[in-house]
Design goal:
This protein is 32% helix and 23% strand. By secondary structure, the protein is α/β, with parallel strands linked by helices.
């Protein structure tokens, strides 16, 4: 069948990317509905459905009855909207792929990265609780795509990750804030006088080790997302994971420095070969020629790029690597569309 697809939060950075990727991947939809809040009602969004088939869609206001004629809904409208509206969509007979954090750690909801754990959909839905799939956090997705093949081959004993996350992870408001601060600096405005509205400090010429709210433990919610989601996706509830998440003055793309210790021994060349043959991964690792992944090079691509693979000489069976991906694409919209493709293949 050619499903009827709805995109919720269609005017946001991720929602727009979902629309773009549905077209790029030639998703065989028969109908496309775009929903957002009242302030975006009537806005026009273009959808490229192939050669000379660019169509213009009008954004509608999201309501409780928006999904009566939809088969799959891609949600990118925040946790509060998802908690309220996703159950209504499911009750209308619509499958929901939710990009918010609302359902990720719900024990009855599969948390899916298609290259890693697509089989979990059947496992979670075998008791008949079908309809909702959670899309993981952007920084978690790229890390597990790179680590899952290693876990499957030799096991992972411990993970320590530091992230360098772009402002687009905060949505359009983060992109705008960095842009405004760059212009202010170019116009002679002093850095010390810059006021941040989105972040607690100016993001231009700065790194902020604070993504999402702090918790009583001293970790941010973003750091806890990486810890808990990684455990759920890899199916290892007590996996030792430590995360430090940092916002950096980059528009698009997240980078991660990952240190991990394996259960079994593996050589660096074997590790590189393993990853080079893993789905969704591309190796860029030639230090002699200064070849390694960068955020700028990853923009508008769907692969997870891995480089700087090397031994950590401070501990047995330990390694370091550098992992980069486009957070709006593989870290959000592309992963959601890939899940929709799984639904089309197996459930529709």
């Amino acid at each position: 069948m050619n499903p009827r697809v709805a995109v919720v939060g269609a005017t946001g950075a991720v929602g727009r990317m979902m629309v773009k990727i549905l077209g790029e991947r030639n998703f065989p939809l028969s109908e496309l509905k775009l929903f957002a809040s009242e302030r975006s009602e009537g806005e026009k969004i273009y959808f490229n459905a192939g050669y000379r088939q660019v169509k213009k869609f009008t954004v509608e206001v999201l309501s409780e009855s928006s999904f009566k004629n939809s088969d799959i809904a891609l949600f990118s409208a925040g946790s509060s909207v998802s908690k309220e509206i996703a159950p209504l969509a499911i009750s209308s007979g619509c499958y929901v792929v939710d990009n918010s954090s609302a359902w990720r750690m719900n024990p009855g909801v599969p948390l899916i990265v298609p290259e890693v754990n697509s089989q979990d959909i059947d496992e979670y839905w075998k008791n008949g609780k079908m309809g909702l799939i959670a899309n993981p956090n952007c920084s978690t997705i790229q890390m597990v795509v790179a680590l899952s093949p290693i876990q499957n081959a030799v096991g992972i004993k411990r993970i320590v990750v530091s992230t360098y996350q772009s402002v687009s992870g905060t949505g359009q408001k983060g992109i705008s804030e960095l842009g405004k601060q760059i212009k202010a600096y170019e116009n002679g405005y002093l850095l010390q006088r810059m006021q941040g509205k989105v972040y607690p400090y100016p993001i231009f010429s700065n790194c902020i080790p604070h993504i999402d709210d702090f918790t009583e433990s001293g970790d941010t919610k973003e750091e806890l997302k990486m810890i808990n989601e990684t455990r759920k996706i890899l199916g290892i509830p007590r996996m030792p994971v430590s995360a430090t998440c940092v916002r950096v003055p980059v528009f698009y793309g997240h980078a991660e420095s990952i240190n991990f210790q394996t259960q079994k021994s593996i050589r660096t060349d074997e590790l590189r070969e393993l990853l080079s043959n893993s789905p969704g991964v591309e190796i860029i690792d030639n230090p002699k020629n200064a070849e390694y992944p960068t955020q700028l090079a990853a923009v508008d691509k769907d692969k997870v790029f891995v480089g700087r693979i090397r031994k950590d000489r401070s501990a047995k069976n330990s390694f370091n690597m550098w992992v980069v991906a486009d957070n709006l694409r593989k870290g959000a919209a592309t992963n959601a569309v890939q899940i929709a493709e799984l639904l089309l293949e197996k459930y529709l």
